[in-house]
Amino acid sequence: MSQLNIVAIFTVKPEYDKEFRVEFKKIVEASRKEAGCVRYDLNQDTKNPLVYVFTESWASQQAIDEHNVTEHFKHFKAFIDGKLEGRQLHILKQLF
Amino acid sequence: MSQLNIVAIFTVKPEYDKEFRVEFKKIVEASRKEAGCVRYDLNQDTKNPLVYVFTESWASQQAIDEHNVTEHFKHFKAFIDGKLEGRQLHILKQLF
């Protein structure tokens, strides 16, 4: 089973932006400690500061499955509920 | 001027998918040779194979500007014209 990459795009409701900064930092720091995590970065769109993009790499689908049941991911998932204008998730295989 | 990351999402019209594979490979190989290119990868969405995602990192905005006037980028830009269902571009700064 080879590496999988994830791009997740969040458009945050403005009233929650400050809270998101705190939660984003927490989930980045916790996720990077996971054994199957190859890369876990959070980016901000330079044109629209309410758009945040996770660029992630995982050793395998199993690593993603394990991530999805961690306390920090479950906490983050509960936190974002109702606080996003939009959300887009791409699970990717690298071609070139 | 610090590093900038780019996520570009292309949804390809099915009739052009084969041609895109050839062109994607060419622009990846040529772009990686550019001095300011830190990372230039092409991914395919595991759920929708007509969705392709570039994940790029550039040393600076100047490096992106130089990339945008290269022959290989201008060729690719002309090639994609009229061949996409959708296109999304995010120029990003890494936060965490």
TrEMBL record, chains A, B:
Keywords: Monooxygenase, Oxidoreductase. The keyword Oxidoreductase applies. GO terms for cellular component: cytosol. InterPro entries: ABM_dom (IPR007138), AI-2_Isomerase_LsrG (IPR050744), Dimeric_a/b-barrel (IPR011008). Pfam families: ABM (PF03992). Residues 4-92 form the ABM domain. The keyword rRNA-binding does not apply. PROSITE patterns: ABM. GO terms for molecular function: monooxygenase activity. This is Antibiotic biosynthesis monooxygenase. It comes from Zophobihabitans entericus.
